[in-house]
Design brief:
280 residues; two-stranded antiparallel sheet; 7 strands; 9% strand; globular; P-loop_NTPase; Zeta_toxin_domain; ATP binding; EC 2.7.1.176; kinase activity
Length: 280
């Protein structure tokens, strides 16, 4: 049985591998968008075969949500990881007197899972994505799970999420956009597109401190990792493991370590009547 101490040692290795310039980062040569067979790397555009895969993933995603309403309503979730955005989402949906299955919830993490499952199925996970540094640790008996390499599909999952949002807006779907709103330019552009399409938009900015965000993000990964290691995980969690997020990410969302809210709050720029703030 894998212990908490072993999980801590594994976490230290992951943090090192995910440090800037490391092999488990979004711009690593092992990242899927850096594979010239799949992408025009300079333009970051998928080639024909990869685009076909994207279309398959998106078609399956939409088909799995047949009850989605088309009332041109949007909930945009902002805030750092580990703050309970899913709870805020449920509360906001309940206020609309609709059901969760009547909304298309778009989260890049879900597309990360799809891409990782595809990589496992077609062999590219082992042949392309796993870096030598991970192989060396694995040769010493340390287990790595696909979600711990999720940074390597980060950019591609963002491409999928953006297309899913564009397509959903084109259909008029009720949508939930799960993100951080940490980048003002992209956040404002997203709001402009929604409002131009006639959407009624509600922003839920869910806040907490950096320390709590880091602790909850780490705790979520550790529970998933130990469950996969000790045979209690089920479904995709058993194969993909815990959802890894390096602590540098929540830290990057706070101007100072002792701030009471993240920089995401300042980017949730709609009026108070269009905004829901839920400090935890």
């Amino acid at each position: 049985m894998t212990t908490n101490a072993q999980a801590s040692e594994h976490r230290a290795h992951l943090e090192e591998l995910c440090a800037e310039g490391g092999p488990l980062t979004a711009h690593s040569r092992h990242a899927t968008t850096q594979n010239p067979e799949w992408f025009n790397v300079r333009r970051q555009q998928p080639r024909q075969e990869r685009r076909a895969l994207h279309n398959e993933i998106l078609a399956a995603f939409v088909a799995s949500k047949p009850e989605v309403l088309r009332n041109r309503k949007a909930i945009v979730l902002a805030g750092p990881p580990g703050v309970g955005k899913s709870t805020a989402q449920s509360a906001l949906i309940a206020q609309t007197r609709t059901r969760p299955d009547q909304w298309l919830s778009i989260n890049p993490d879900d597309f990360k899972d799809d891409l990782l499952m595809q990589a496992l199925a077609d062999g590219s996970y082992e042949s392309y994505m796993v870096p030598d540094e991970v192989r060396e640790l694995e040769s010493k008996g340390e287990e790595f799970y696909p979600r711990e390499l999720a940074a390597l599909v980060h950019n591609e999952s963002s491409i999928l999420a953006k297309k899913a949002i564009r397509d959903a807006i084109g259909r008029g779907d009720n949508i939930v956009i799960d993100g951080t709103l940490s980048g003002e330019k992209n956040a404002r552009a997203q709001m402009d597109v929604l409002q131009a399409a006639g959407y009624d938009v509600k922003v839920a900015d869910v806040e907490t401190t950096q320390a709590l965000s880091e602790a909850r993000t780490l705790g979520r990964w550790e529970r998933g990792y130990l469950a996969a290691e000790n045979g209690t995980a089920v479904g995709r969690d058993a194969e993909l493991g815990g959802r890894w997020v390096p602590l540098s990410f929540p830290a990057s969302l706070f101007a100072a370590a002792d701030d009471r809210e993240s920089i995401c709050a300042a980017k949730s720029f709609l009026s108070e009547s269009d905004r829901c703030s839920s400090p935890l």
